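Aim 2 progress update. The chain analyzed this quarter is reproduced below.
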Amino acid sequence: MRVCLIFHSTRSDNLGVGALTVSEIALLRDLAAKAGREIAITVLDWKDRRTPYVAGDDLRLIEVDGAFLKSPKGLWAEVKVADLVIDIGGGDSFADIYGTSRLVKMFWMKFATHLAGTPLVVAPQTVGPFTKGWSKRLARMSLNRSALVAVRDERSRAALDDLGYRGAPVLASDLALRLPYDPPAPRDGGPVRVGINVSGLLMAGGYHGGNDFGMALDYPALIARAIDWFKGQGAEVHLVPHVIVPEGPMVIEDDLRACKTLAAEHDVICAPAFASPSEAKSYIAGLDFFTGARMHACIAAFSSGVAVVPLAYSRKFAGLFGALGYDHTVDATSADADAVMAALEQGFADRDSLAAEAKVALARGIDRLAAYDAELLELMKAL
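Predicted structure tokens:
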């Protein structure tokens, strides 16, 4: 069974995209075994330089660039020969908010799959928001031609209705809830460990430096204020990167530089440059309280039993966590700095109860993912 993965990555500098890919590949291997089939997985991969997170004789990685997308021997040949193409949209890229260039590439790869006659699976992801007429039309056309559509929250399901999707979507959750990690060693005493994921992109004001995501507050000032407040509580503060871009055109997204600068200024700990999503999750699992603006950093905390207050810059946060009954997300596009700090302070005080809530909500998320597993298994059996 030949499966091609698009808008996944085994070596993305964004560890959130990597977490989704690692989890998807593990699921495909498991489902293929249940279907009694051998599997060959091709990942049309991003050109980041890090070592791939996953390996195996059943795995083939192809670097994607403009020439590959346009060549008849590139994208078209790969989706044509595949039995199934799965698109996870980088988790949340099937939307207008990240700019036209990324969305056009996504539509190009989707419609190449449709034209090749290969079944397309829309893996659990955020859908929307779409604000432009052309993107709404193309999204509707592609979704209605897809063999299986899964979303990770109710807001995305509502977005499907608004777009005019005629099928029955699978209401699932985020695949990274199942990302493997190493649980921390038992700890006896010591200060409370607080993790803050600092978004380099938000520190820069977005891709164009003009408050691209519509934050209702001064993000760098908020982070500095939060660090100092947690230090004042006697906490051991860890600044945790989750998008690590050593060089290149996307260096504006790098969290590590921002974390290092702030760690030096405030005399706190900077977490290392993680080599994989599981390594990052294993580190986060050793903390007692967490907050961050990278959703998959927050998912790593949530799914490893750590109390977390997600700091949202888009509706994907509240959609995902709220769908599981975990209602502690604070929206930085509407809440001012005082409101965000109040939420962080309350969450820190209530961290034991938040951790207990997260455990219950995680079980709910795992149950919802089972619906995607079942639908995908049936599709694979029919190939």
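The chain has a mean pLDDT of 94. DSSP finds 14 helices and 13 strands in the chain. These observations will guide the mutagenesis experiments scheduled for the next reporting period.
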